[in-house]
Recover the amino acids of this structure.
């Protein structure tokens, strides 16, 4: 069945690939990001899918911008069936390179952005009494890895928030789903100088996400298998073992 989907963080990388697939499938899609209305890729898609695609700018760090975008997005196709939260920024920092602005941006976009959109969109979904929210977290939400805590801590907060909200939203008819996936080759990971196991293209990541969200509802979607199993195991192990293992991941210049 065709859906009305709003993706926040849908102008590049995985989000842009999701937009392409959803449009090809005949869905109505609203794609948002800070500068979405100037995105060459989205504007090119708009030429092809004039009626099916709406592009709306939003900066999730600003509540006023979020309020405006939620109103516009809900109106455009007379309701929304799926809200997909995909916005995030990423910085890897050793203690030597700590930058408070980066920490703040990651918290404001990767976590608080979802909270802002959620608080504005909830009344609409409550009134409708059904719908799905999908939040793109990360496998990094399972366990803090060296140098990555500024990014993974807000993602862990997002996962924890989702766990806490799921039962209450379920009673309201809203299905909340979390996507935890591994490394994808996008501008986000371009800055990584380390080897990224099981690195995927954004196309593959988007296809995987779409395949799984079409299946009967499950709270969490996670892939790829080896990396998610490794990180799940790390979470289950006693800290005296897991922290010895993560110490081995420190770059040579630090360890
Ligand atoms: N790449 C990976 O290896 C990986 C792994 C696990 C999870 N993820 C998650 O997958 C999602 C997509 O990441 P990606 O790799 O595809 O990165 P990306 O290409 O940088 O996409 C991030 C999206 O978020 C938007 N965005 C950033 N700041 C925003 C703000 N303040 N307000 C509104 N939108 C904002 C960006 O557009 P503008 O900058 O134009 O606003 C862009 O559309 C993220 O949630 C990321 O954490 C990625």
């Amino acid at each position: 069945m065709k859906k009305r989907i709003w993706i926040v963080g849908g102008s590049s990388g995985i989000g842009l690939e999701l937009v392409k697939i959803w449009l090809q499938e005949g869905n109505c899609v609203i794609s948002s990001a800070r500068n979405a209305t100037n995105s060459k890729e989205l504007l090119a898609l708009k030429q092809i899918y004039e009626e099916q695609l709406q592009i709306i700018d939003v900066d999730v760090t600003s509540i006023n911008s979020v309020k405006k975008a939620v109103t516009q997005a809900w109106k455009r196709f007379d309701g929304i069936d799926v809200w997909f939260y995909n916005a995030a920024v990423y910085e890897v920092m050793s203690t030597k390179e700590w930058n408070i602005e980066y920490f703040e941006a990651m918290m404001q976009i990767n976590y608080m952005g979802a909270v802002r959109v959620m608080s504005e969109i909830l009344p609409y979904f409550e009134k409708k009494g059904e719908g799905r929210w999908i939040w793109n977290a990360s496998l990094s939400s399972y366990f803090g890895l060296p140098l990555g805590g500024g990014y993974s801590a807000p993602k862990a907060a997002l996962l924890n928030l989702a766990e806490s909200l799921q039962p209450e939203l379920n009673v309201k008819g809203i299905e909340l789903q979390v996507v935890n996936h591994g490394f994808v080759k996008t501008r986000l990971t371009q800055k990584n100088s380390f080897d990224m196991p099981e690195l995927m293209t954004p196309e593959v990541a988007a296809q995987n996400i779409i395949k799984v969200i079409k299946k009967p509802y499950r709270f969490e979607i996670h892939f790829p298998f080896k990396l998610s199993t490794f990180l799940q195991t790390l979470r289950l192990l006693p800290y005296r073992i897991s922290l010895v293992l993560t110490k081995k991941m420190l770059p040579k210049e630090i360890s």
Observations:
- The chain has one domain: 4-247.
